[in-house]
Design goal:
The structure is a single chain. By secondary structure, this protein is mainly alpha-helical. The chain has a domain at 44-290. Helix content is 71%, strand content 5%. It has 15 helices and 5 strands. The chain has helices at 6-30, 36-62, 69-87, 94-120, 126-144, 190-208, 211-221, 223-228, 233-256, 266-269, 271-284, 289-305, 313-329, 331-339, 342-354, and strands spanning 147-151, 154-158, 172-176, 181-182, 261-262. It has a 3-stranded antiparallel β-sheet with strand order 2-1-3, with helices on one face. A two-stranded antiparallel sheet has the order 4-5. A hairpin with a 2-residue loop joins strand 1 and strand 2 (154-158). Helix 2 (36-62) packs across helix 11 and helix 11 packs across helix 12 (289-305). The longest helix is centred in the N-terminal third of the chain and has 27 residues, at 36-62. The radius of gyration is 22 Å and the shape is globular. The two termini are 28 Å apart.
Length: 355
């Protein structure tokens, strides 16, 4: 019997971690052992995992620092919510409507990722970070000031107020400025979130281990050498950036359909959201997909688990951040982890058994 290839084995372990976590959580919920607070965090956990894994494709695999990931999430959220709100009476079967909303949100975010990436990816390092940060803030503020209405004459747009839309009596305001979209169908749930997490992992991990993924990583490691052997640098940069943006759009659709309303508020899609996603990637290990998942889960649950310690909650949170950073990046700890890894221990046990 042939051994399973290492790449497939690693992928299966990652999928298995997600499936086992889902099964355990469902069992705990069925026995009433999970509080309503934690149940309310399950879909956001899936959203943050998708965002962390997708950003790791840009930061860890491509090697470019992007601070506009929340902007792509915002585009996906509003595109998907707009579609669902408009078609809620026409498409009554919610799974089909939600599936189409996911496709539209991913397509819109991916398209903007491609269009933004063409000029932006000419920059590197801090310059790229500043430009992507500016893009995210522009997207958030434009949508925050956008009014969109729909009547029998078609779709109307305005950047001033809803009265400027000039809607007929049969019209309805879909996007209402800072209030965003109200009345979005709540089609998302924990099961759908886990399925989207698995889809994200499938796309990212298969891309990383494909020929295109190796080309992307070669650009990260040495741009000049990659160009010298004929790798189309612009093509592969745009590929990674666009896929990362599209997956952020998927997370945005999941976010918008988990709430009854979605608004482009600074808290939801601003600079702080992009920084938080980047923290997940850095603490989990740049280029480490499983690490991004674990960091997103731990750092999302931790503030809520410590909510009873109002005076010391953020202090404990900060200490955990420092400890996680040391655990992932300190040379001495990395050396200790390598010596005490499961593979190393298994090798020692095999050596002893032979003796």
């Amino acid at each position: 019997m042939e051994k399973i290839p290492k790449i497939w084995r690693e992928n299966l372990i990652t999928y298995g971690m997600v499936i086992i976590a889902y099964a355990v959580m469902q069992i705990l919920i069925s026995f009433g052992l999970v509080s309503r607070l934690v149940q309310g965090l399950l879909v956001p956990l899936c959203i943050y995992v998708i965002l962390a894994v997708s950003l790791n494709l840009t930061v860890g695999i491509l090697g470019e620092l992007s601070l506009g990931h929340a902007g792509f999430m915002c585009l996906g959220a509003f595109a998907g919510a707009f579609f669902s709100k408009v078609t809620v009476d026409a498409i009554t079967f919610s799974p089909v409507r939600f599936f189409l909303a996911i496709l539209i949100g991913a397509a819109v975010a991916g398209l903007f990722g491609f269009l933004i990436g063409m000029p932006v990816l000419r920059f590197r390092g801090d310059y790229l970070a500043i430009v992507t940060l500016a893009f995210g803030e522009i997207i958030k503020n434009v949508i925050n000031a956008l009014f969109v209405g729909l009547d029998s004459n078609g779709v109307h747009f305005s950047l001033s107020d809803r009265a400027a839309l000039g809607l007929l009596d049969d019209g309805d305001v879909i996007i209402n400025g800072a209030q965003g979209i109200i009345g979005t169908p709540q089609d998302s749930n924990f099961t759908v979130g886990v399925l989207l997490v698995l889809l994200t992992l499938f796309i990212v991990m298969n891309l990383i281990r494909s020929r295109d993924g190796r080309a992307i990583m070669s650009i990260r490691d040495n741009l000049i050498a990659s160009e010298s052997i004929g790798i189309h640098v612009t093509k592969y940069k745009l590929m990674a950036f666009s896929i990362s943006a599209a997956l952020a759009g998927v997370a945005g659709v999941l976010y918008s359909h988990n709430l009854n309303s979605v608004a482009a508020s600074p808290r939801a899609f601003g600079y702080n959201m992009s920084i938080m996603i980047l923290v997940f990637v850095v603490l989990g290990g740049i280029g480490n997909i499983r690490g991004s998942m674990i960091a997103a889960i731990v750092l999302t649950l931790l503030p809520e688990m410590l909510r009873g310690l109002d005076r010391y909650r953020m202090l404990i949170y900060a200490i955990v951040l420092i400890v996680m950073m040391l655990f992932n990046w300190s040379p001495k700890i990395l050396e200790w982890r390598e010596r005490h890894s499961l593979r190393e221990l298994a090798g020692r046990l095999r050596g002893r058994s032979k003796v």
